[in-house]
Design brief:
Thrombin, subunit H; mainly beta; 6-stranded antiparallel beta barrel
């Protein structure tokens, strides 16, 4: 009998499609959009796969519908944990730290 998979995430994920700009040292800025996001992690669709353990920097904007105030721009530093292959790869990353940017 198969055992159900145990949920290992410690924070709640929100299914949100937000634009993301990912900095790539080789290709410059790459544009993506999120599949889901939490306070500690993100999963986004990117045209090109990335290697696991790659450090990345990305920026996203939390819209007024999310913040219930004004739009908030966030720069995040993260590490790629997993890449789900597909027509458009999904990159899952653990956020190490983030900074709120001035509007």
């Amino acid at each position: 009998m198969m055992q159900p998979e145990v949920e290992r995430r410690s924070t709640r994920r929100f299914l949100l499609s937000l634009p993301v700009t990912v900095k790539d040292p080789d290709d410059g800025a790459m544009f993506a959009h999120t599949r889901d996001i939490s306070s500690r992690g993100i999963c986004f669709y990117l045209a090109k796969p990335m290697a696991v353990d790659t450090p990345i920097e990305f920026t996203l904007t939390l819209t007024p519908e999310i913040t219930l105030t004004e739009a908030i721009h966030v720069r995040c530093h993260a590490r790629v944990l997993r890449v789900d292959p597909g027509t458009v790869p999904a990159v899952a990353a653990l956020i190490d730290h983030y900074d709120f940017l001035a509007n």
